[in-house]
């Protein structure tokens, strides 16, 4: 406790003396825990992203809220667990009128704010979005002063760029709609908008975002700090590396796409250097959820989530334990590793703290500042020892080194396998779990719940539910308590 008080006192003195930092928050799309060379990848190289670890801190136990992107991005920007929303996430804007998000808190404190890339938190107030009208509410109504990017994932129509409130290249003579009738696929089919679609070549989205970031950084002055939220498209399917990057990795198009991502991140780092912003910019790089096993990369011997069990969509670790790197020259010690639990829901409060901005009353209700973990990664005590994560079929509760799942299977799409498996089948993942047969089916004698000690069993091989009945009961009750309606958090 004494050490923590000294750290907090130091931070207060330093904040009073130093100018507020610029903040760049970069979020990859479906980048797994093992998808960086600094995290163990050997079939391709990510030197520019790795430089953030060598010049800053690498978190080894960092988690997105969810194993899929929409709820993960909701929690990251709001400091609020997405299960509190109590409504379906689809095309309509997921944030409530008047809700203060991270960009809004920073903007109100004098920051210039911009977003580039994948929004995927909805537009307007109806799931039947009129893509030919102004798209609002959206990013600009929740604190971003400018927006350029894709409405959703780059595989989901409309396949266009949006700038601020309008689709780029919109043509009144060729209006845009999305057909969701049977046979049009999971996300429907774009109708119209040929000119707008042509202006958004899938294989160059991240390269375009990097160029937009360079322009934004060049436009900033020294008197006003800035916040840039940059949400990349890679390596989400479809795997779309540009011609310049095809064949450059040893992990097929998956590895090529990640190497293009690494290059794009490097362009942003170069822009910060070129425009004299690197010295006082806090950079955070992470992913919205775990990686998806892809056949070509798997055949090459690449494991997107390293030693972890599961993949995107799952409540197992592979669904939500993600890469997390941070650099802040002169403030974050170089080449350090943070091994304590960290949760994306704390990013809003942490970045506000770094900017000496008080979180407004009622904002970030589930988050707390973990700034000491950034500035003293080895010794600062963890502020959070408990957190909720979300798969598409189950939740998970983390307490200390223990994690509890209230249901059998992966908590997502890995186990039990759907008729059309998501990613490659469990049997081809090269993993083992005491509850699951090699076929990918849950064993008949498997316990109805799951409990793992990640300190002793980080790959979740052995379900400890039967051996720890008291802990199982306590965590079951705690998860129910945390996820029950709470009027103080708007649920």
Written description of the protein model:
The chain has 491 residues and is of the alpha/beta class. The protein has 2 domains: 2-386, Alkaline Phosphatase, subunit A (3-Layer(aba) Sandwich), CATH 3.40.720.10; 389-489, 2-Layer Sandwich (Arylsulfatase, C-terminal domain). 25% of the residues lie in helices and 15% in strands.
What is the H level of CATH, i.e. the homologous superfamily of the largest domain? Alkaline Phosphatase, subunit A
Q: What structural class results from the helix and strand content?
A: alpha/beta
Count of the domains: 2
Instruction: Kindly report the average pLDDT value.
Output: 94
CATH architecture of the largest domain: 3-Layer(aba) Sandwich
Q: Between the first and last Cα atoms, what is the distance in angstroms? A: 34 Å
- Rg, Å, rounded: 22 Å
**Number of extended strands:** 18
Uncertain runs: none
As a percent range, the share of strand residues is 5-15%
Describe the global form.
Answer: globular
CATH topology annotation of the largest domain? Alkaline Phosphatase, subunit A
Regarding CATH, which class of the largest domain? Alpha Beta
């Amino acid at each position: 406790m004494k050490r923590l008080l000294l750290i907090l006192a130091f931070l207060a003195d330093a904040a009073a003396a130093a100018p507020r930092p610029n903040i760049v928050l970069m979020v990859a799309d479906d980048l797994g825990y093992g998808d960086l060379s600094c995290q163990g990848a050997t079939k391709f190289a990510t030197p520019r992203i790795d430089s953030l670890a060598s010049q800053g801190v690498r978190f080894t136990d960092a988690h997105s809220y969810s194993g899929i992107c929409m709820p993960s991005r909701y929690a990251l920007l709001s400091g609020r667990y997405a299960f509190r929303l109590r409504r379906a996430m689809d095309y309509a804007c997921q944030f409530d009128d008047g809700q203060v998000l991270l960009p809004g808190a920073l903007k109100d404190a004098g920051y210039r704010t911009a977003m580039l890339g994948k929004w995927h938190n909805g537009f307007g107030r109806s799931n039947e979005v009129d893509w030919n009208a102004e798209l609002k509410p959206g990013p600009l109504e929740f604190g971003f002063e400018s927006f350029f990017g894709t409405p959703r994932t780059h595989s989901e129509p409309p396949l266009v760029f949006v700038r601020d409130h309008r689709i780029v290249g919109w043509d009144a003579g060729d209006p845009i709609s999305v057909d969701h009738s049977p046979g049009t696929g999971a996300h429907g089919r774009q109708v119209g908008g040929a000119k707008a679609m042509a202006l958004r070549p899938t294989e160059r989205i991240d390269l375009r975002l990097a160029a937009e970031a360079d322009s934004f950084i060049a436009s900033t002055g020294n008197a006003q700090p800035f916040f840039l939220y940059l949400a990349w498209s890679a390596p989400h399917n479809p795997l779309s590396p540009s011609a310049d990057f095809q064949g450059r990795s040893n992990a097929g198009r998956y590895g090529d796409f990640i190497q293009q991502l690494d290059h794009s991140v490097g362009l942003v780092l170069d822009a910060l250097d070129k425009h004299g912003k690197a010295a006082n910019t806090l950079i955070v790089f992470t992913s919205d959820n775990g990686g998806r096993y892809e056949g070509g990369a798997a055949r090459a011997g690449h494991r997107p989530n390293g030693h972890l069990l599961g993949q995107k969509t799952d409540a197992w670790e592979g669904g939500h334990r993600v890469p997390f790197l941070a650099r802040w020259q002169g403030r974050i010690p170089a080449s350090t590793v943070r091994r304590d639990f960290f949760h994306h829901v704390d990013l809003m409060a942490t970045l506000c703290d770094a900017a000496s901005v008080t979180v407004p009353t009622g904002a970030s209700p589930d988050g707390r500042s973990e700034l000491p973990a950034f500035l003293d990664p080895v010794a600062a005590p963890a502020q959070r020892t408990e957190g909720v994560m979300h798969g598409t079929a189950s939740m998970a509760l983390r307490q200390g080194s223990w994690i509890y799942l209230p249901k059998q299977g992966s908590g997502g799409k890995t186990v039990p396998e759907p008729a059309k498996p998501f990613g490659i089948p469990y049997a081809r993942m090269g993993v083992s779990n005491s509850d699951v047969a090699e076929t990918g089916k849950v064993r008949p004698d498997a316990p109805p719940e799951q409990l793992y000690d990640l300190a002793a069993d980080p790959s979740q091989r052995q379900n400890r539910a039967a051996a720890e009945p008291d802990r199982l009961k306590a965590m079951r009750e705690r998860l129910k308590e945390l996820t029950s309606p709470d009027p103080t958090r708007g649920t």
